[in-house]
Design a protein that fits this description.
By secondary structure, the chain is mainly alpha-helical. It has one helix at about 1-85. It starts with a helix and ends with a helix.
């Protein structure tokens, strides 16, 4: 009788332990999923920032090229004007 009662109590304890273990595993999985979502958002923001930086750098280079071209044109026009004044 005592052995049977101990076996039933042991079985109940195993079921309860499994329940709590499963609940804890689910919490951990949920937390991992949240962290992966956060990680994904951060990576996306990083990619957007990298693209924005690349576009800004390209625009800067274009503006510098245009300014150099205009400066050369001004120099050429000044030289032509000086030659016309002679």
């Amino acid at each position: 009788m005592v052995t049977g009662l101990a076996a039933i109590m042991g079985l109940i304890l195993v079921i309860v332990a499994k329940f709590f273990t499963t609940a804890q595993i689910q919490r951990i999985r949920r937390k991992v999923a949240e962290e992966q979502t956060t990680n994904s958002k951060i990576k996306t923001e990083l990619r957007v920032a990298e693209v924005t930086k690349a576009v800004a750098f390209q625009n800067l280079k274009t503006e510098e090229r245009i300014q150099r071209s205009l400066n050369l044109q001004i120099d050429k026009n000044n030289t032509d004007l000086a030659n016309l004044k002679k």
